[in-house]
Design brief:
disordered N terminus; Rossmann fold; alpha/beta; 6 helices; two-stranded antiparallel sheet
């Protein structure tokens, strides 16, 4: 079977209902539904759907620092996409187009990542999650990508995903999952700038934007700037995460 591929997937697949438990960091937002309008913990269903399709069992980690305690009970972590990180976390003044800070979510996800690294469990950072991985390890961000690359193709308009062709390093973890050239869906106006010590760039767009990084010396700590959860029929990155969780749990 090709690298990065799995057989029949989902809860009826090879891992069954006892597949590895994947913790997904979630949003804290004000929402309205029915007669209610209040704060809620939420996450697009594309994330848990992708975990299930890859043979894992999804659980949400709310944006409160106490949620990091649950990392001791999961087999892998996904740092989900979402709003901009606070520039103060990497020592920069805010760009005029940088979004309002979400200090509770920032602090929670840093704590979740630190606990996951301490335990040595797999981590997949998606978009904001890749940026958080970089910042938590000492890197910085480009706060508005069009300023750096001269176009808005990575974020064509609100709520619309752009398509980017990414060149991936052969032999990397991402390359093993998706190959050395992959067309991806992206929606981001920020990106990695100075890459943290220990992170290795393994994917770039044609304009030089960092699209994938991996933590050197760790079996599976990967950040991608794109949104793999939006590819309804392409489970490869999430399948790689679930496979890494199974290997880690078995002591392999």
């Amino acid at each position: 079977m090709p690298a990065g591929q799995v057989g029949p997937v989902g809860l009826n697949g090879p891992n069954g209902p006892n597949g590895p438990v994947i913790g997904l960091t979630a949003y804290g937002e004000q929402v309205a539904y029915g007669v209610w309008h209040h704060d809620a913990v939420l996450l697009p269903t594309t994330y848990p759907d992708m975990v299930v399709a890859a043979g894992g069992v999804p659980v949400l980690l709310p944006p409160m620092v106490e949620a990091a305690g649950a990392v001791g009970r999961v087999d892998a972590v996904v740092l989900s996409g979402g709003p901009d990180l606070a520039p103060s976390r990497y020592g920069a003044p805010p760009h005029p187009l940088t979004g309002a800070p979400r200090p509770e979510r920032d602090a929670t996800e840093v704590a979740v990542l630190q606990r996951a690294l301490e335990r040595g469990i797999p981590v997949l950072g998606v978009c904001r999650g890749a940026q958080l991985l970089n910042v938590a390890l000492g890197g910085t961000l480009v706060q508005h990508v069009p300023d750096a690359v001269g176009h808005s193709g990575h974020n064509p308009s609100p709520g619309v995903f752009g398509t980017t062709l990414v060149s991936v390093t052969p032999g990397s973890r991402v390359g093993a999952a998706v190959g050395t050239s992959v067309s991806v869906l992206c929606h981001h106006h920020q990106a990695l700038d100075r890459v943290a010590d220990g992170l290795v760039v393994t994917g770039r767009a044609a304009d030089g934007t960092v699209e994938a990084v991996e933590l050197d010396g760790h079996p599976f700590v990967v950040g991608v700037q794109w949104h793999p959860e939006q590819h309804a029929t392409d489970h490869r990155l999430f399948a790689a995460l679930v496979a890494a969780a199974l290997v880690n749990a078995s002591g392999g």
